[in-house]
Structure formats: C-alpha cells, structure tokens
C-alpha cells in the first residue's frame, strides 16, 4: 500500500512537471532506449505494483558552482516510461 501511495504521488508530481526540462519526450519510450542513451541508472526503486522509479544524477564538477541536474523516470511493468522529470539548473539538464 505504501508503494502505491508513493507511486501515485510521484505520478502527480511528474504530471505537474511534465514540461520541466526536455525529458517529457521519453514518455512512452522503452527502458532499454533510456539505458542506451544514459547508461546504467544511478538509483532505482522497485514498487510493489511492478513499476520502477529510475534516477540519473547528471551533476558534474560544476556542481560545486551550483550546477546540477537530476533526471527521474517512472517505468511501468511493461518497461515503458510513463513519466519523466528533470530538475536542476545546469546545461546537463536543459540539453537532455
């Protein structure tokens, strides 16, 4: 039940931020395409309903200067991206 609530909250958050950055085009794409583009995720959370939350931290040495980027994707049980969010202020976020 806890994971269902987390999943629901995440989906509302993703829906409200769908235009943040340039990652919304990933919605509907396959997980394998995402991994091919970005590599192995930095973290992931598998939910009880089979969905996963995958995150990439695209921060670099400029993070010290305040430049950072976090890319978060919701992946459904059929390995399709059902939501995407970019958060940050660096070039790594705006150019994805």
UniProtKB/TrEMBL annotation:
Domain of life of the organism encoding this protein: Bacteria
PROSITE patterns noted in UniProt: PROKAR_LIPOPROTEIN
Name of the protein: DUF3862 domain-containing protein
Organism lineage: Bacteria, Pseudomonadati, Pseudomonadota, Gammaproteobacteria, Alteromonadales
């Amino acid at each position: 039940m806890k994971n269902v609530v987390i999943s629901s909250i995440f989906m509302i958050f993703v829906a409200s931020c769908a235009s943040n950055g340039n990652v919304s085009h990933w919605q509907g794409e396959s997980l394998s395409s995402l991994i091919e583009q970005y590599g192995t995720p930095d973290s992931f959370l598998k939910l009880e309903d089979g969905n996963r939350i995958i995150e990439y931290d695209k921060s670099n040495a400029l993070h010290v200067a305040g430049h950072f980027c976090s890319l978060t994707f919701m992946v459904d049980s059929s390995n399709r991206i059902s939501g995407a969010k970019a958060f940050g202020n660096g070039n790594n976020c705006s150019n994805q």
